[in-house]
Design goal:
about 650 residues; mainly alpha; two-stranded antiparallel ribbon; two-stranded antiparallel sheet; 27 helices
Length: about 650
Amino acid sequence: MKKNDKIVSFFVGILLAAGCVAFDMLQGTTVFAVRYLIVAVGLLLFFGMKLFSTRPVVVPKSKVFYVYFASIVAIGLSVFSAVNLGESLFVYSKYVLIYMLVILFYNLFNHDEKAARKTLHVGCVVILVVYLSVSCMQLFHVEDFSFDSLYKVTGLNGHKTFLTIMLFVLSSFALAYVAEAKRKSCKLLSVILFVVSFALVVILKSRAVMLSYVSAALFFVIMFSVRKKNVSFSRKFKMWTTAAVFVLVFLFFTVGMRLLVKVDVPKTANETTVEYEYYSTSSLVERFTVWGKTYEMIDDHPFNGCGVGNWQVMFPNYGQSELYRVNYWNINFTRPHNEFLGLLAECGHVTFFVIVLFVISLIMKSFFAICKISDRRDFVYGAVILSAFVGCCVNSFFSFPSDKTEYFIWKAAMYAVLFTYITKNENGYNSLKLNTLWKCVPVAVLVFVVFVGFFRYKGERHSAEAAAAMINNDWSTALQCNEKAVSVFYTIDNKGFPVNWYIGKAKEQLGLSGSLADYRKAYDDMPFCKQNLNDLGAAEYACGNRDVAVKHFGKAMQISSGFVYPYFNLAYIYLKDNELDKAADVISAIGMNENVRDVLIKDARFFENENIENTVERIENEYYTTMKLRRTLIHLQGE
């Protein structure tokens, strides 16, 4: 590599690192779409400049890449099955961005492979130094090494889980470059960063990421053994092995895992009182519960799925009473903590078939291509990256890291590296050049992606302002901000609540008319939001629509046993109409009592640490309202 190329690679790597670190620093904000928008604009500029460049845009000329393209198209078709179109388009845009990033990185490798590897190495080293420095400082301030304390170690990533998966990905890129680096100091630094990253993951007790490290290590050992023994594979063997692995993986997610989630997982003690005494106490129990309900969703939408990005819209319909955090506290699940299962639920079996075919084909094709490489340095680089990709797939089984912008940037880099090995030949890469007409396609697509991103950014920014106003009971400002936030591309906020519900609440607080129309809009956007169902029922009843109100209250009760307000409202209706038997059934179903009140108040410090006084007051009011209803019922029955 020439000196000028080294300088360019170094500065591009610094730029990549600075961008990812800047994204991480934005993790603490509530405006997440700004990172998405920056990536979209950057890609638009890249492909836009390519329209006027003599250098062509190239893509891998490989059946695996064509299957990848087919999977992106298939995911897009699920948009037509979505209840919430705006959320579906936004989430689908992320898959489009990853696809475009893969093409960008592949073009960098096609232009100068050594420079591209150097760029990625510089970027990952700088980011790791920043991550580890901040994380270690946070680690020194934790009270103890309990799970609750360790969750305060987030680096710049906003959450321990995302910090640890990024450490895994970046440390893998750093380790991959060891064989290629010429300077001993560079090799030593890379090894040290890898070791420290792994040690921090162990200290933070991130079990899913530790499993990723173990899986990657085992896969690398297999690759090293195959190459050392100089095993040659026939074309027939490769084809049948790939087919067998694909069938096993596809059957595991469609059949095997369905049986696995029915296993009774032992519950373990937890710091939180209510969880210990009443509900699930381990993250695995919670995940198994969520996965089981996701399979119910899959059974209801087997072919087309419920629409990409719409898992969060449909999930409450399958009940939240078994999920302590969702049942009692204002927490919503937006993903099923399993990317593969989420895709199966949102896109259906046909699209999932194509997705699994792509992932398995990419792994197996890369495996066979890398194992036959004679150059040791080239083999080590490819083997480490492929092993890391397998580790990422393992992690995706327990989490949803691809939601994060900085993660999917590096995941796209992994894809590009693997495609270079698949298409590598004596003359470079077997690539397909896009002519001027085809160059226009990604530009047109990215213009739309940027358009969607702008509305998401606008919505999230105004929603953040509205949230701050609501905390201060400034409902007039909250109403104005939420009305600016809502659009066809932004109907659900980052917490998983419909924006129109906030608008309806603000109008009620201000004594303005029109809240019923807003609750109805929120219902169209998210038909199973228990909070909106309760307020919609109350608004319908106030307008004389008793039967509609009863229906909405009943659905909210079916969703959550810990959300007591629809119980109160429905009991009031039955008591007012002197339907005492029905009122008795509703009141007896309220799960609030003196013991539950006490343990909820104790547990408030874990879930409402910044708002404990108001939370305790709310719990007390719920308890006294329950007792009042029971006394009223006894009095009326006595008469």
